[in-house]
């Protein structure tokens, strides 16, 4: 297979490069549009040859060579069921149209856009602009994380076999989880320490010491744990979140923990993306 030129918009910590590498797709040039300094730092640490382009609104097709693959996960705050439902009125979600603009300017052989599961009226707008219908995939097939995402692409997507990975497969030694599958890790995961808000409002899972074995893993049991020694329960560690996103261990090391959680929450589940990329072969 020839070495390809890739343009990644909203590149974050460059999960796209991990996925291409894992899929065995050789890359000639990888152009990344990203503005978060911590995400760029992690990208350059792991992939120093990445060509950073900065703000997507200042990226133009005429300044780039022929692009074989255009990828991106445009900001989703205006589309998410968990958000305010601002759809395309949200300036972050309007950035989707930058993906459309560059797709039209570059006419790449392949493209892939990822976003959250959303209302049909928003989904239809994106589908009309890109000319393809999305496929809904859940990261739980390849990870211990329930994470449903929509993928618009002209790459044929084959069905994904369930690997049967559960939380106890990914938690660090000495601990176990209150659930088989983690709830979706988002960019706010590392914020705050209030347990009641963390467990009840955030619908998060606990990680417990092996020495504590509750008879019933429920909200009532968790309420009891809340009043115990805090060393016996905790949130997911950064390493565990890397495992949930199928990112190489310690990939995000070198930035503050809150930034590691943020970029992991904004990132892709790599094994889902690599499964899609394999079809390009």
Task: Describe the structure concisely for a colleague.
The chain has 281 residues and is α/β, with parallel strands linked by helices.
Present the secondary structure layout.
Elements: E1 4-9, H1 15-23, E2 27-33, H2 37-46, E3 51-52, E4 69-72, H3 96-106, E5 110-116, H4 120-130, E6 135-138, E7 148-153, E8 175-177, H5 195-201, E9 207-209, H6 219-226, E10 233-234, H7 238-244, H8 257-266, H9 270-278
Parallel strand pairs: 1-2, 1-4, 2-3, 4-5
Antiparallel strand pairs: 5-7, 6-7, 8-9, 9-10
Helix pairs in contact: 1-9, 5-6
Give keywords.
Rossmann fold; 7-stranded mixed beta sheet; 281 residues; 2 domains; alpha/beta; single chain
Describe the structure.
The protein has two domains: 4-159 and 268-278, Rossmann fold; 167-242, no CATH class. With 281 residues, it is α/β, with parallel strands linked by helices. Strand 4, helix 3 (96-106) and strand 5 (110-116) form a beta-alpha-beta unit. Helix content is 29%, strand content 16%. The protein has nine helices and ten strands. The chain is globular and about 60 Å long. The model has no long low-confidence stretch (mean pLDDT 86).
Low-confidence stretches: none
* Rounded Rg: 19 Å
Q: What is the N-to-C succession of helices and strands?
A: EHEHEEHEHEEEHEHEHHH
Q: How many H/I helical runs?
A: 9
DSSP strand (E) fraction? 15-25%
Q: What is the name of the CATH superfamily of the largest domain?
A: Vaccinia Virus protein VP39
Number of DSSP-assigned strands: 10
User: Helicity range of the residues?
Assistant: 25-40%
| Class of secondary structure makeup | alpha/beta
Shape descriptor reads globular
Distance between the termini: 7 Å
